[in-house]
TrEMBL record:
This is Mitochondrial acidic protein MAM33. Residues 157-192 are annotated as: Disordered. Residues 173-189 have a biased composition (Acidic residues). InterPro entries: MAM33 (IPR003428), MAM33_sf (IPR036561). One of its GO terms (biological process) is cytosolic ribosome assembly. It comes from Verticillium dahliae.
């Protein structure tokens, strides 16, 4: 009896366990078999979406290419109406320097021989992108601070001897007017251009002089003068060379040298063609070069988009 009762009590539980152990078939939503109609609809929607995307991309490309072509035509019209600056033409016609300007490159080089010396001057259109007018004006203000102080002293001395009849104010008004005119001229002036001047003596000396200068307002302003025992360090072409150049003692700031030494060094450069003509040419040619590179860039981008 006990065995039968035990069997009867345990039977439902065994069946329950069996029921729990038996897997229940459930629909697989991940790999659900689609009907031919739904599959066709999805394919049609995907095809329509892809076609729409590509059509829009093609229209956008055509619009971009047309805009680039319009810009190219505009630049060509401007080029036809513009002439090469006189400073550039005169320098190229009369200067002993030979111009090296490779399309697509930022740097421009001028080379010449002076006796047994080889002189290379390098400047770049990158100066236009890096030019900060506010910082430039601050530097000029600091440089002119002493001149302004001296002018104030002179004005005070003049006013001490001038009766208070308005004459002093008239002189001051004239000075203010001249200052405004100079500011207007400065607004039209080209940005300063940095020059790297390298002087070598092949066969006579393994070293080289490297002078950093700035062409601005028709003048050459020397900033630093380096000497390298290995001339290759003056114009390094590898990261290792650039690191070796950075490790060399650069020498004192040019402005801290004896004034007579500064004057003689400036005369040394002038005799080798680093003159006022170069100071005017370099910024003007940077503008010409940048314009040519911009047109070349427009043409290259248009060609790529239209390909």
């Amino acid at each position: 009896m006990l065995s039968i009762r035990s069997a009867a009590r345990s039977a439902p539980r065994a069946l329950g366990r069996l029921a729990r152990q038996t897997p229940v078939a459930r629909p697989n939503t991940l790999f659900k078999t689609s009907s031919p109609l739904s599959a066709a609809l999805r394919t049609q929607r995907a095809s329509a979406f892809s076609t729409t995307v590509f059509r829009r991309a093609a229209e956008s490309d055509e619009e971009l290419a047309a805009k680039l072509e319009s810009e190219l035509q505009f630049e060509e019209e401007v080029k036809q109406n513009e002439q090469l600056p006189a400073s550039v033409k005169d320098f190229l016609d009369n200067s002993p320097f030979e111009l090296h300007d490779s399309p697509g490159k930022e740097d421009v080089k001028l080379t010449r021989t002076f006796g047994d010396e080889k002189i290379t001057i390098t400047f770049s259109i990158a100066d236009l992108a890096n030019y900060d007018p506010d910082m430039y004006e601050q530097d000029r203000a600091l440089e002119d601070e002493d001149d302004i102080d001296a002018s104030d002293v002179q004005n005070a001395n003049k006013q001490a001897n001038v009766p208070a009849t308005g004459g002093a104010r008239s002189a001051q008004a004239e000075e203010d007017l001249e200052a405004e005119e100079e500011e207007d001229l400065d607004d039209d002036a080209a940005p300063p251009t940095r020059l790297s001047i390298v002087v070598e003596k092949p066969g006579r000396s393994p070293g080289a002089l490297n002078i950093d200068a700035v062409a601005q307002d028709g003048s050459i302003v020397v900033e630093n003068m380096f000497y390298y025992e290995d001339a290759a360090l003056a114009t390094p072409t590898t990261p290792e060379g650039a690191q070796k150049k950075a490790d060399v003692y650069p020498g004192p700031p040019f402005g801290s040298l004896d004034e007579d030494l500064q004057i003689l060094m400036e005369r040394y450069l002038e005799e080798r063609g680093v003159t006022q003509a170069l100071a005017v040419f370099a910024p003007d040619y940077v503008d010409v070069k940048e314009q040519k590179e911009y047109v070349r860039w427009l043409s290259n981008v248009k060609g790529f988009i239209s390909a």
